[in-house]
Amino acid sequence: MKNRYQVGERRWLVGVAVVGMIAGAVLLSSGMRRTETSSYPCPGALGIRSEFNYEPSPSQLRAILHYATSRVVPQQSVAEIKISLDVIKAVGRPIKLLVFGLGHDSLMWASFNPGGKTVFLEEDPKWVHTILKDAPGLRAHTVRYRTQLRDAKALLRSYRTEATCGAAKAYLLGNDACKLALENLPDEVYDTEWDMIMIDAPKGYFAEAPGRMSAVFSSAVIARHRLSSGFTHVFLHDVDRMVEKVYAEEFLCKHNLVNSAGRLWHFQIPPSNSSSSLFC
Question: Which residues pair with 141 in a beta bridge?
Answer without folding.
Answer: 121
